[in-house]
Amino acid sequence: MRYTAKTISTATSVAALLGTLAFSLPSISIAEDASVIAEGKKLAFNKKKGNCLACHVIEGGKLPGNIGPALSIPGVAMKDRFPDKSKLRAQIYDARTMNPNTIMIPFGAHEVMTDSEIDKVVEFIYSL
């Protein structure tokens, strides 16, 4: 009888601990996501890195270009245009794989941005 009570007590304690952790983890994740998105925006707007504004309209950007499609369209999220985030990443890494005639810079293939920087830009663009 004591063994069963001790087991139940231990199981309850573990469950309470895991429940507490489950509530605290999303807040860390949300803060990290916001930080990554902010860094991605900085890279996307940076003229020596992403320079996305040279060709695309992006909300919050100054003097956007119109060579490429608008990335900020009211009512149309990038998640709708690219349901698979990996395809968006591939497009930014090297758009020539999907369209050999594109004029978009292959940011990854030409090492304009590192993989980590591309990932941050993807998170920013995907948040639009």
From TrEMBL:
Residues 1-31 form the signal peptide. Pfam families: Cytochrom_C. InterPro entries: Cyt_c-like_dom, Cyt_c-like_dom_sf, Thiosulf_SoxX. It comes from the Bacteria. One of its GO terms (molecular function) is electron transfer activity. Residues 35-128 form the Cytochrome c domain. Keywords: Heme, Iron, Metal-binding, Signal. The keyword Heme applies. NCBIfam families: thiosulf_SoxX (TIGR04485). This is Sulfur oxidation c-type cytochrome SoxX.
